[in-house]
Amino acid sequence: MVKGASDAILRCLEGFELDWDGEIYYQSQHIDDYLAAIEQLQQQQSLYHCHCSRKQLADNPVIYPGFCRQQPPVSSLDYALRIKTFDQHLVFHDYLQGQISENMAKQHGDFIIQRKDGIIAYQLAVVIDDHQQGVNHVVRGYDLLDSTPKQAYLHQLLDYQLPSYMHVPVLVDQQGQKLSKQTFAQAVDDSNRSQTLWRLLVLLKQNPPQNLATATIKDILEWAIDHWQSQSLRSINSMQMNHDYQ
User: Fold this and answer.
1) d(CA 43, CA 40)
2) pLDDT of amino acid 245
3) In whole numbers, what is the pLDDT of the chain averaged over residues?
4) Spatial contact of 233 and 201, defined as CB atoms under 8 Å apart
5) Angle (CA) 177 183 184, round 5°
6) Which pLDDT score, from 0 to 100, does residue 147 have?
7) What span, in angstroms and rounded, lies between the C-alpha atoms of 19 and 56?
8) CB 3.0-4.6 Å disulfide test: which of 46, 187, 189, 216 passes with 41?
9) How far, in Å, CA of 168 to CA of 14, rounded?
10) Which pLDDT tens digit goes with each residue over 161-206?
């Protein structure tokens, strides 16, 4: 992360009066928790060493073909850790997207939970993070729905309670690309926070009254909570941000 980025994120949240519970959770302070989960998975014989090079993986399909699954571990070589998946369906319910059923082996394959450089993969880290913080509802962008079966699978293996999920539409530009730092999207405009919140409610099809655009942030958030209609977003994967809202 860029130096100072975390402080900027916290200042932005404070500016929009989006408060949080408890202390701020930094992944860098929880490496031992991730390693303990890896040890548990190893004890369950759910992991194996993968020595494949990037070239080997680039020459093969997106779904990992299991080259290293039957190979004995070779501790002298660099390796990643992959989780074993099987020809079985994992089923969970998403509040907006409905029932999700995917075959773990055929649609996801044996995925990495720790890279060769020792970095813990997102799929494992986020599961441990949610469990540690007692998260029981996850609301996030539709673009992350593909990751959720992997995380649900890890929840099962670690005997964690599965959260409830809701994947909401993501904002995209005129080329259909998600607004993010990777696509050089502008940062959140906090020069007129009330107007920004009102515009977001319009994009989310919540039909806020016009006079709410000049209300206090507290009043806008209270209105949004009282009038929130998730069903307005059903079956919508993305929303284009037109020039009027940029």
Assistant:
1) 5
2) 45
3) 89
4) no
5) 140
6) 95
7) 46
8) 46
9) 23
10) 999 999 999 888 777 777 776 766 677 777 899 999 999 999 899 9
pLDDT digits (tens, 9 = 90+) for 115-143: 999 999 999 999 999 999 999 999 999 99
- pTM score: 0.88
Query: Rounded to 5 degrees, what angle do the CA atoms 53, 54, 58 make?
Result: 125
The two structure tokens encoding residue 10: 């916290």
Q: What domains can be seen in the chain, in order of their start residue? A: 23-168 (3.40.50.620), 171-245 (no CATH)
In the chain, what percentage of residues exceed pLDDT 90?
Answer: 64
Each as own residue / partner, the long-range contacts of residues 176-185 (CB below 8 Å, 24 or more positions apart, any chain) are 176/238, 176/240, 178/141, 178/143, 178/238, 179/241
Q: d(Cα 53, Cα 44) in Å, to the nearest integer? A: 26
Alpha-carbon distance 118 to 113, whole Å?
10
Q: Which two tokens stand for residue 218?
A: 């507290």
